[in-house]
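Example 9 (inverse folding). The structure is encoded as follows.
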């Protein structure tokens, strides 16, 4: 079954939560998202997972330190589908799609793809019982880097894409122009924001789902080669 990645955005538009102007911006940015995904698939020869555009700004905060918070422009999340099977999906936040530059959009797509591959190789090795992330932001950024496969190995054939990813994520994602725009045009305009605790962003997958997860042999071989 194919699900329209813009389904939730379209619902938000019909519900008048998203203006005509914003809808058009998201729609325009969506073509960059699709181009970025095609480019990732082309250079890696691996299919990009299911993704969709979330019409919310996602802000994470730490329950230990309320002064620390961060904007999440995308995340890679394992979900249990209606068919009771494990799926890994990528959620891309609408503010990124609407206001991000091509560079930032490509960098974030590539970064999430590295998380996706990392999760797949963990599943492949079947050792992901609980993936504890820390509460502290510094450690979270530090750990974030540890939850990736090596960008140089994955994007070796596309030096420009590799440059976007490594450049934008040198020390967590950095794009101050985008952040300013998001505060101005999304936060101050009262558009929908969802807050999540960093701790709730933990990845915990029951082992039976992992055992039932099917990976084709071609992808399995690829994942092993990336681990070397
Ligand atoms: Zn990350």
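The amino acid assigned to each position is listed next.
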């Amino acid at each position: 079954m194919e699900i329209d990645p813009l389904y939730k955005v379209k619902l938000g538009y019909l519900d008048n939560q998203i203006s005509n102007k914003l809808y058009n911006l998201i729609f325009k940015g969506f073509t960059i998202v699709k181009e970025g995904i095609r480019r990732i698939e082309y250079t890696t020869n691996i299919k990009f997972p299911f993704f969709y555009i979330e019409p919310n700004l996602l802000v994470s905060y730490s329950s230990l330190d309320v002064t620390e918070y961060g904007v999440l422009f995308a995340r890679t999340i394992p979900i249990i589908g209606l068919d009771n099977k494990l799926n890994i999906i990528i959620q891309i936040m609408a503010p990124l799609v609407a206001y991000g530059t091509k560079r930032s959009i490509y960098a974030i797509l590539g970064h999430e793809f590295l998380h996706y591959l990392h999760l797949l190789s963990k599943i492949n090795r079947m050792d992901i019982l609980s993936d504890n992330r820390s509460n502290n932001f510094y450690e979270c950024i530090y750990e974030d880097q540890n939850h990736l496969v090596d960008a140089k190995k994955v994007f070796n054939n596309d030096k420009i894409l590799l440059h976007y990813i490594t450049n934008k994520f040198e020390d967590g994602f950095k794009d101050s122009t985008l952040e300013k725009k998001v505060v101005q045009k999304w936060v101050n305009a009262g558009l929908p924001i969802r807050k999540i605790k960093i701790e709730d962003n933990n990845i915990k997958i029951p082992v039976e789902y992992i055992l039932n997860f099917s990976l084709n042999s071609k992808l399995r071989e690829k994942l092993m080669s990336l681990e070397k």
